[in-house]
Amino acid sequence: MNIPSDLKYTKNHEWVRVNGNEAIIGITEYAQKELGDIVYVEVDTVDETLDAGETFGSIEAVKTASDIYMPVNGTVTEFNEELSTQPELINKDPYGRGWIVKITFDDASQLDQLLDAAGYLALIGA
Known about the structure:
Blueprint: E1 8-9, E2 14-19, E3 22-27, H1 29-35, E4 38-42, E5 49-50, E6 55-61, E7 65-69, E8 74-79, H2 82-85, H3 89-92, E9 101-104, H4 117-124
Antiparallel strand pairs: 1-2, 2-3, 3-9, 4-6, 5-8, 6-7, 8-9
């Protein structure tokens, strides 16, 4: 299981790559394997400010659908438009081209509530 050590993780299986007060968010390799073949990604919250834990989008797979949650309070600034025509990028490259949204946030202390790679591995029992 690929769990990059330079990312933060949520208990809902999102990953967060932080760069200053911006972050890129996607779902983990574990989550995409649990979902199966992803066929559709919907994000209709671009330019919206949401609280940590609020839904910013959803992912549909062949066998199920799942909401995607904000890891910290922030504003969704960009959706990965490649996913509109190639949602399977999440299955193929969950930590690279399969990113879902970019956000900006003001309170970096909220990042302390997220898991590091070891904490996420413990969560999924790996």
